[in-house]
Design a protein that fits this description.
It is a single chain. The chain is α/β, with parallel strands linked by helices and 422 residues long. It folds into two domains: 126 residues, Rossmann fold; 232 residues, Dihydrodipicolinate Reductase, domain 2. Helix content is 27%, strand content 27%. It has twelve helices and 20 strands. Strands 7, 10, 11, 12, 13, 14, 15, 16, 17 and 20 form a ten-stranded mixed beta sheet that branches. A six-stranded parallel beta sheet has the order 3-2-1-4-5-6, sandwiched between helices. Strands 8-9 form a two-stranded antiparallel ribbon. A hairpin with an 8-residue loop joins strand 10 and strand 11. Helix 5 packs parallel to helix 6. The structure holds nicotinamide-adenine-dinucleotide (NAD). The site of nicotinamide-adenine-dinucleotide has 24 residues, from loops. Keywords: NAD, Oxidoreductase.
Amino acid sequence: MGTPAGIDSIAASSGEAAPGTAAQPESTAACPSAAATGAPARIALAGVHGFGTHHLRNLGRLQAAGAVDLVAVADPQPPAPGSVPPSAAVHTGLEDLLAATADLDVVIVATPIQTHAPLALAALATDAALYLEKPPVASLADYNRLLDVSAASGHGVQIGFQSLGSHALAAIREQLAAGTLGTLEGISATGRWVRDRAYYKRSRWAGKRSINGVDVVDGVATNPLAHAVATALRIAGARTTADVASVETELYRANDIESDDTSVIRIRTTAGLPITCALTICAAESVEPYVTLHGSSGTAVFHYTEDRLVVETAAGRTEETYGRDDLAENLLAHRTAGVPLLSSLRDSGAFMLVLEAVRTAPLPTPIGAGHVRWEGEGEAAHAVVAGIEEALERAGREHLTFSELGLPWAVSAPTSFPVPAA
Ligand SMILES: NC(=O)c1ccc[n+]([C@@H]2O[C@H](COP(=O)([O-])OP(=O)(O)OC[C@H]3O[C@@H](n4cnc5c(N)ncnc54)[C@H](O)[C@@H]3O)[C@@H](O)[C@H]2O)c1
């Protein structure tokens, strides 16, 4: 503890709020069609339901501005009437779409986690850049393969951690550089959301660790609250696999699922900074998740879904809400002008070590029925773990797992993940 880690690595790495400054872009390949002609970028989207609807809305905004042309979509389920532009071709799969569509600038993949690796590889076999939803892929082996292929292709790959586009990250960097918080001693990520039974019934991969031997890794830290982990890592300056020294996991579940829904992930960066992520989707009430910087003379709390930063020191309390760069626009600017990516595939390496630690950890420990109450009826019922709010706060503040805190339901122990040499 006491290492002023984070600040140097944040300052030295590609600046999320200062694109075009000292940072090195992942790829400087420019798009000849859009760059030279100013024509709208030709976009394809795989996955039009679920989170794909968010992409459709965003692409609608960019299309109205003349920046993009959504030329084709792929989904085994047809799009809802009127949800895609009439000019967009509709395919049932990405392979068909790619075979039928020339000169794509960007392919967006917003499909179930277990499909990311094959669809991303298919997209990178074209001349298009790739926007790949989080988590990037479901294993470290697939991540390394994708990284090699993307490097060979020269095309940018953006990962959909949209919180990494927040301008609050630059403000945090400035606070650290100015010494407002004193020495940065640790970072915590706290997530307490509510997810009901219907959430786990919406798709066949929901709550799965694998399907027929194919990794899925749909746990609380790797899917619903993955942004909490990714944002904490980014603030700590941990971007690539080389930036992480250790990862420990302690995984539990209150729901009747394969994967974890209530977990502590404890990370130490190679610069020596501890990061503790205490996460659940079994809270009594949903609260927007936050990343806390614990300094020797103050704290900064980043509510990343709201771009809101609260700083408390002896001098008082400040609260500010910031803007955010859109990751699709950033990928287009990367392709046409070499602007650094805000959430590149390479910079998701630290996150992928966490995912691999979760993937290879023992099965999550069920939380005893006596410590779980169910609120609501039928499919709308959701589990609430007794005392979870205080447990998350203490875990983050003290960098302890639930068993180390001595909680009555925490009968597991931390599992140490052997971080491979970078
Ligand atoms: N960035 C975020 O904030 C955020 C939020 C939610 C979900 N996500 C991510 O988005 C992705 C999709 O999640 P979801 O909950 O929308 O999943 P989902 O199961 O609802 O599926 C999304 C769509 O993909 C389609 N699909 C399935 N297989 C396909 C294939 N091979 N080719 C084309 N389409 C296919 C499905 O039919 C569905 O329409 C996941 O990676 C998830 O983690 C990101």
